[in-house]
Amino acid sequence: MSAAPLWTSQAMAQAMRAQIQGALPEAITGLSIDSRTIAPGDAYFSIKGDVHDGHDFVAAALKAGAALAVVERAQRDKFAPDAPLLVVDDVLAGLVELGIASRARLDAHVIAITGSVGKTSTKEALRRVLEAQGPTHASASSFNNHWGVPLSLARCPSQVKFAIFEVGMNHAGEIETLVKMIRPQVAVITTVEPVHLEFFAGIEAIADAKAEIFAGLEPGGAVVLNRDNSQFARLERSAKKRGIDRIVSFGADPKSDARLLDVALHPDRSAVHANILGHDVTYKLGMPGRHMAMNSLGVLAAASLAGADLALAALSLSQIEPAVGRGARRVLEVGHGEATLIDESYNANPASMAAALNVLGTAAVGPQGRRIAVLGDMRELGPTAPALHLGLNEAIKANNVDLVYCCGPLMRNLWDALSTGKRGGYAENSASLADQVTSAIRAGDVVMVKGSLGTKMKPIVMALEKRFPGKASQDGAEV
To answer: Would you list the domain boundaries of the chain?
Structure first.
């Protein structure tokens, strides 16, 4: 028996209060906002972005096999009278309405995840854990903003048992709007750290913004909080003010409901002994780093609250793998030997940078090998940015990093503080730094590349992979 379609055209039209134009197919098998990745049977939403207007790509989407396009009323005359269209006043608003309709039809355990660090890695670990126990849907990549959340909701099949949604923000008020669409039974805050300080008065204000996730919690739902975090008490008070009774904590703190009892950290994995909601469990974790071991406690707590089998969930954690740009490892063929590349190029903030340097510090180097950090600017830190970049020098020393390459004007603060022996190279941009890095790598090295998305560190990763073709490593870390 074939799977049920994601939507019917009629159901979509009804949910979005859309006008039908042209002959529409009955079944819609997927949704897309990118004409370049259209699959046959998809509905294409022509959203207006900061750079492009999706209406300019409707013809390309239909030619690529889109079942229909969702367009705004003001632009419908651009298209042929027989073009298969759903016409709405505003395309993004229509997507939001479709996401809300999708949530209304779900009979699933719904989980929402936010936090300053670790949202995506926790979401992906939870997805891996839950999909072993039933049909599971999770947000793709980091689809966690004003269009990513409704798109992830609208893409959720009605028959799933578990649904996991990531929620992000860089301004107050964003999370509340998004979580009221999701209406989770379980809400997770991984941690609260000094990120997006350009837009907040301090870490307490960031905690208050993260606490907006409580606003959408379903009656009788539970929240999962990091008890080791400095903002735990503030978040707990906020949850209680919302009338939330089920507050589950995780961490090494003896009062934690999901408590770390012991952890053995290895270069490519960890072994964890924990007590999860009264049950002792010992498990292997497929990624290194104490931060990942801590996040795994939150994963198991959330899975248990969602009705999953704890023993099976713990067993599944050995199978988790890092995402591209978030700690994925690659073996580089350098001369007659090998080096290891740790790709952390997707994004960075002070907390994730420190965690990545900790992982680099535990990485196994070869004979004559060095631990090399290639670090790009961390964005959105406001007036504290110079001091926070300079402060990375302590983590570099503590983790025995041998050589540091710095990229961007903010990283100049770190560069000036480095001892002469640790200075690998400096450049204002990644394009200028790439040749310096690729020329320096030798067999036995472990090189980690990390920076904020706007610093564009990915080209350095690509340059290393191009010059030293290799293979994906079985080891991995994700921040």
So the answer is: 7-88, 106-319, 328-476
Contact in structure between 224 and 187 (CB atoms under 8 Å) = yes
**Which tokens go with 142?**
């980091």
Return the number of other C-beta atoms located less than 10 Å from residue 219's C-beta: 8
- Contact between residue 359 and residue 380 where contact means Cβ atoms under 8 Å apart: no
Does CATH place domain 106-319 in 3.60.60.10?
no
Residue 132 Rama label (left phi>0; alpha psi -120 to 50; beta): alpha
Q: Classify 328-476 by CATH class.
A: alpha beta
Using one digit for the tens of pLDDT, what is the confidence trace for 156-190?
999 999 999 999 998 999 999 999 999 999 999 99
Output the CATH code of domain 7-88: 3.40.1390.10
pLDDT single digits (tens) 323-367: 778 888 899 999 889 999 999 998 899 999 999 999 999 999 999
Residue type (1 letter), 94: G
Sheet of strand 371-376: strand arrangement: 423-427, 403-407, 371-376, 446-450, 337-344, 328-334, 470-476
Residue-level length of the chain: 479
List Cα–Cα distances, 299 to 126, 130, 324, in angstroms. 6, 10, 20
Q: What is the pLDDT of residues 428-442, one digit of tens each?
A: 999 999 999 999 999
User: How far apart (Å, rounded) are the C-alpha atoms in residues 396 and 402?
Assistant: 8
At residue 76, the 3 state secondary structure works out as helix
Element spanning 19, H or E = strand 19-21
- Smallest CA-to-CA distance from 430 within 402, 452, 401, 397 is with 452
Distance in Å from the first CA to the final CA of the chain: 41
**pTM of the predicted protein model:** 0.89
